[in-house]
Amino acid sequence: MSVFRGLLGGFLALAAVVPAHAEIFDLSLGDNSVRAAIYGPLSRAVDQTSGQYDVGVILKPERDDDLFVAHVGALVTGDAGMQQFNLAAGLGVRGVYIGRDHDSGGALAVGGQLEARFPGYDRIGWSIYGYYAPDMLSFGEFDSYHEVGTAIDYQLIKGASVYVGYRNVQVGLEAGPDITADNGLHGGLRLSFF
After folding, report:
1. Cα distance between residue 50 and residue 41, in whole Å
2. pLDDT digits (tens, 9 = 90+) for 104-150
3. For the chain, what percentages of helix, strand and coil (3-state, to nearest 5) are there?
4. Which end of the chain has the least Cβ crowding within 10 Å, N or C?
């Protein structure tokens, strides 16, 4: 439990410092999980680059093993080329660390995302993403990792959106059954810092 509290405190301290340089803070609550993330232009972290960075953590404090999943990633992003439809796409990598009381390890996952805004109703958006790491890109006690999610958001005011979505995070153990790190509906809030 002390590791869990330390990581949560570290992430909250990071969240308090980074928004001055980040673009978006994202917080979502599920039935028994909390996810917090910060993401924005990759050029804020590495000069003269295009794309998007993201740092986040999923916490499940009510599990017996204090499971948490932390990640840091980078995506190359751009317009997906659909005329008269605001569709952006991204492809990239995500380094993932999975911690439990008895097992720890991680993965280097590859994946991507799509984000769309509806013509004439640009306050409404839809997003979908997915990441996957097979055995050869996983380490420690784990032999696979996958995460998929989707959400529909509504921009209340410029710089603040609410959303509802679905997320599934599965981790394969080398010796034992797969672990469901997160699965189900969640509601969230995104705050943009300019």
Report:
1. 7
2. 899 999 999 999 988 888 899 999 999 999 999 999 888 999 999 99
3. 15, 65, 25
4. C
Q: Within a 10 A sphere around the Cβ of 119, how many other Cβ atoms?
A: 9
User: Side chain identity at 182, as an amino acid letter?
Assistant: D
Chain centre distance of CA 20: 20
Rg, C-alpha atoms of the chain: 17
Mean per-residue pLDDT of the chain: 84
Residue 63: what pLDDT? 63
Q: Extract the tokens encoding 35.
A: 């996810």
Sign of torsion over alpha carbons 169, 93, 56, 89:
negative
The residue to which tokens 């995500």 are assigned = 94
What values do phi and psi take at 12, rounded to 5?
Answer: -65, -35
- CA-to-CA distance for 33 and 67, rounded, in angstroms? 10
Provide the CA 26 distance to its chain's centre, in angstroms: 9
pLDDT tens figures, 28-80: 999 888 999 999 888 877 777 778 999 999 988 776 667 789 999 999 887 77
Please answer whether residues 37 and 191 qualify as being in contact, where contact means their C-beta atoms are separated by less than 8 angstroms.
no
Q: Is it true that domain 2-192 has CATH number 2.40.160? A: yes
